[in-house]
Amino acid sequence: MNGTTTLKSLVAIAFPCLLLAGPVGAQARYPDKPVTIVVPFAAGGPSDALARAVAQQMTKSLGQQFIVENVGGAGGTIGLNKVVKAAPDGYTLGFGTNGTHVANVALYKKLPYDPQKDFVPIGLIGSAPLVLLARSSLPVSNLKEFVDYVRVNRAKMSYRSAGTGSISHAGCVMLLSALKADVIHAPYRGVGPAMNDLMGGQIDFMCDQTTTALPQIAGGKIKAVAALSAQRVPQLPGVATAAESGYAGIDLRSWNALFVPKGTPATIVTTLQDGLANALRNQDFATQMQKVGVEVASGKGAAPGAVTDLISHGIATEVPELKTRVEYLD
């Protein structure tokens, strides 16, 4: 066999291999199909609204559709358990909060996931202050009047939340602990039903973030009694903080982040982190979030390490206090 024949033979063998290499390389690109963000709460609540806004920006950022799937129940544990059990291939993301990753450690005896070991954080999306909300007919206009009213009427009062373990539940637990008051709690399956009953006057109050409450406050359907954050809420400049009302040390915010299951390849994690970072830098997104009271994370504050620190700090400082206020759930 001469050199020319040998070269032709090698080309004949190599050419089909090159043809095969094209599709294989294309398939390795991520993402090459829709990505699901599991929101562990019912549709219509603040987490759902924020996740859908993020999904829209991630779709633009990474050129593939990001869709939201609501898997509510048990304070977010059902939805996040689905994320933990999903294939670690980057196509199932989890939307987590300080309710799912901190409060639930205190509120459930047996969590189906370990918030510190079973997830890899993609990044922090942002945070929103909590506000003490009351039915429009509750005869109080500030936190001092609220406390006085609770002391006289707490036996017949009730508050609702988006579910046991949700930030709306944990927030009220922390608030009532500071106020040294006990009021009956009944969980709902999502903020939407709780907000509807608050507007209808069936319940007395709830603690929730500004994301979905601002339109109801502006419409006079509910009233904002106090900002539960360190500073006044810019969108509610006339509502005093708890500290201004004589209850220093109350600073309650809801933070939100994206996660993937542990074991997800580092290259995919990096792609998602870059995609989220690009999404958060979008000015239209930032403006949209500002209108509903969400402070969009940026720089080091949006990094995965910031999420890890928030979880660690919350478990170390908030969980012990929550445990003193509530009994474990099965």
TrEMBL record:
Keyword Signal included in the entry's annotation: yes
Annotated keywords: Signal
Keyword NAD: no
Signal peptide: 1-26
InterPro entries the UniProt entry points to: BUG, Bug_dom1
Domain of life: Bacteria
One Pfam entry name: TctC
Family assignment from sequence similarity: Belongs to the UPF0065 (bug) family.
Name of the protein this chain belongs to: Tripartite tricarboxylate transporter substrate-binding protein
